[in-house]
Every structure is written in structure tokens, then in C-alpha cells.
Automatic annotation (TrEMBL):
Keyword Nucleus: no
Entries under InterPro entries matching the protein: Apaf_helical, NB-ARC, P-loop_NTPase
Organism: Theobroma cacao (Cacao)
Domain of life of the source: Eukaryota
Molecular function, one GO term: ADP binding
The protein, known as: NBS/LRR resistance protein-like protein
Domain NB-ARC: 3-144
UniProt KW Acetylation keyword: no
Biological process according to GO: defense response
Record keywords, A-Z: Plant defense
Taxonomic placement: Eukaryota, Viridiplantae, Streptophyta, Embryophyta, Tracheophyta
């Protein structure tokens, strides 16, 4: 579902200080509609090495990525994945077997088919916010407060906005 906070939640995890200390390497790739295994592998490699790469051969990219991930604990986020092709996922994931125990790959997707193809653990579906939580979030963004105390005249308008947003955090923050 669009706007429930998948990317935002992944960003919070990715940027958390304790996460930074736990992993040797981190990489973030926004995938979207085009699941190009070579392009994604190259982006991961460039993120891990902090250097640009002009290779375009999947095998040599994966060999170099394996060398850089070998014996390291890594966190990889693949954001907004749409591809439902199991073979593409199998090709992409082959270099990740060299990471040490505790390495993680987080995938954000709107598709339950994608999560069932890629998962090795149970997926977690984000739910829309309750009206009360939505109202608190709106108060936070609009008034920089936890609620409408001191601004009761705005609470009714806030509830109308909450109903229009349907519990979607992205709509509420916008």
C-alpha cells in the first residue's frame, strides 16, 4: 500500500546509531519498476566501496561485491521492489552468501508476491493509523505538539483532515 511508511521505517532503521555500530557495511538501493540485476549490483558495490565502478559485466561485478562483503556483517535495503521474478532475485542475491552471520537484507514493497518470493523470514505488513494516532501525527506536524490541547478550535478541522487521509502517514504529513 502506498503511503503507509515502508520507506520511512526502513530509513529510521538504516540511520539508527545502534545499527551503524552493529554492521560493518551498509547499502541502500531504490529499485522501483526497473529490476536490472547489473544496475542494482553495481549500485550496491559502489555504496559498499564508496567508489564509482565502470564495470557492466554481472559476473565481474558480483565477484568484486563478494570480495567486499566477505567476512563482513552487512545491512542492505532494497527499497520499493516490484519485480516478481524469482530468477532475477536468485541472480541478485548470490554474492550475499559470503556475509557473516547477522547480515540482513530489508526489502520494502507494496506487493505480497514480491515478499513471498524474496523472504526467508515472515514479512511484516504495515497497517494504516487509527484515527487517534492520525490526529496525534497531524498535531505533531501542524502544531509541533502531541495533541490539540490549547488549540481545541483546530481539532474539528484536524478530524476532517484525518478522515480524508484514511490513516496514511504520508498523506497526513503532507
Amino acid at each position: 500500500e502506498f503511503g503507509v511508511g515502508k520507506t520511512t521505517l526502513a530509513q529510521l532503521v538504516y540511520n539508527d546509531n545502534s545499527i551503524r555500530d552493529y554492521f560493518d557495511l551498509k547499502a541502500w538501493v531504490c529499485v522501483s519498476n526497473e529490476f536490472d540485476v547489473i544496475k542494482i549490483t553495481k549500485t550496491i558495490l559502489e555504496s559498499v566501496t564508496s567508489q564509482s565502478c565502470n564495470k557492466n559485466d554481472l559476473n565481474s561485478l558480483q565477484v568484486e561485491l563478494k570480495e567486499n562483503l566477505s567476512s563482513k556483517k552487512f545491512l542492505l535495503v532494497l527499497d520499493d521492489v516490484w519485480n516478481e521474478n524469482y530468477d532475477d532475485w536468485t541472480k541478485l542475491r548470490s554474492p550475499f552468501d559470503v556475509g557473516t552471520s547477522g547480515s540482513k537484507i530489508i526489502i520494502t514493497t507494496r506487493s505480497s508476491n514480491v515478499s513471498s518470493i524474496m523472504r526467508t523470514v515472515a514479512d511484516y505488513s504495515l497497517q494504516i493509523l487509527s484515527d487517534n494516532d492520525s490526529l496525534c501525527m497531524l498535531a505533531h506536524h501542524a502544531l509541533e505538539r502531541v495533541d490539540f490541547t490549547g488549540h481545541l478550535d483546530l481539532k474539528e478541522i484536524g478530524m476532517e483532515i484525518v478522515k480524508k487521509c484514511g490513516g496514511l502517514p504520508l498523506a497526513l504529513s503532507t
